[in-house]
Specification:
alpha+beta; five-stranded antiparallel beta sheet; five-stranded mixed beta sheet
């Protein structure tokens, strides 16, 4: 008889939702940037730029949630229950789990997290007895609750009956060597990065450069009516542009910082000395410096 069973949450609906949402936000950002290039008035420019500004934090968030969905699993063993949702890992010794039952058995419906969407039912709510329940699920129906003395966990295996049957088989076998409880949160990764001085300096410097470019552009734009972007391939001066379009530079700087920072965390998670992590964070610093130089030369060429 197998002593380990792994189950996965339903992911197809969440996969399609995340992919469509990512593509729509990227398309909206590209459309907004394209329209912003021909905008002449400040408010209209900012209106067209708003999809790109919203896409800067939302697209990386959706990509991360998609990654966690595809790297989610629930593993039952004789000695432990292991719940994984991307970078979130919870190990529950079998002797610590007080009960496992469908959420539909509750007399009062289980409240779902307020901020949720298909493929991402994550967050913490409370059971009727006041005990916190953490959701690691891809759907709001067909949930299973795992109760401990401290808190409960709501999960969504694809086959509820198979999950409950496997758990019953394992507890009948009994635990051979009770494991230690373990709880790993994504914040633990950020704390580990923050404790590494080189990583901390690169991330802080990259953020500071993007913020400086944003503040500099906001200070200069009201004082300058038009800007020049150099010469054409034939040596002719380019048409002057409204100064408000200088806001493109800090937006691109922030986007590069978030993308490089997120990818760096992915590599750093597997190996804190991974060269790609530091290369990507260094690239954020380099990009930030280049955008600052771009603002400097644009203003100098007036």
């Amino acid at each position: 008889m197998s002593e380990s069973f792994t189950f996965y949450p339903p992911w197809r609906t969440g996969l399609f939702f995340h992919l469509i949402a990512i593509l729509l936000w990227i398309a909206g950002a590209v459309w907004g940037l394209w329209r912003a290039t021909s905008a002449q008035v400040g408010p209209i420019f900012l209106l067209y730029l708003s999809p790109a500004l919203l896409a800067v934090p939302l697209v990386p968030l959706l990509v991360y949630r998609l990654y966690t969905l595809r790297n989610a699993s629930y593993t039952l063993e004789r000695d432990r229950i292991r719940l994984q949702w991307g970078w979130r890992i919870e190990t529950i010794p079998t002797d610590v789990a007080l009960w496992i039952r469908p959420a539909s058995d509750l007399e009062i419906p289980l409240p779902l997290p307020r901020l949720r969407w298909p493929g991402s039912i994550l967050g913490v709510r409370r059971l009727p007895d006041g005990r916190p329940v953490e959701f690691l699920a891809s759907r709001g129906v067909g949930l299973i609750l795992i109760g401990t003395a401290r808190k409960a966990y709501a999960i969504s295996p694809s086959d509820i009956n198979a999950f409950l049957g496997a758990y019953q088989q394992l507890i009948e076998l009994g635990s051979l060597d009770p494991s230690q409880a373990e709880s790993i949160h994504p914040s633990f990764l950020f704390a580990r990065v923050w404790s590494a001085i080189p990583a901390r300096l690169l991330l802080l410097l990259g953020a500071a450069l993007s913020i400086i470019s944003l503040v500099w552009a906001m200070i200069v734009i009201p004082r300058v009516s038009q800007i020049s972007l150099g010469f054409t391939a034939l040596g002719q001066p380019r048409e002057p542009l409204p100064a408000i379009q200088m806001m493109f530079l800090p937006v691109f700087s922030f986007f590069a910082y978030l993308v490089n920072g997120s990818l760096g965390l992915f590599f750093y998670r597997s190996d804190r000395n991974h060269p790609w992590a530091y290369l990507l964070w260094s690239a954020s610093v380099l990009v930030g410096m280049l955008f600052l130089l771009a603002i400097f030369f644009i203003l100098r060429s007036r």
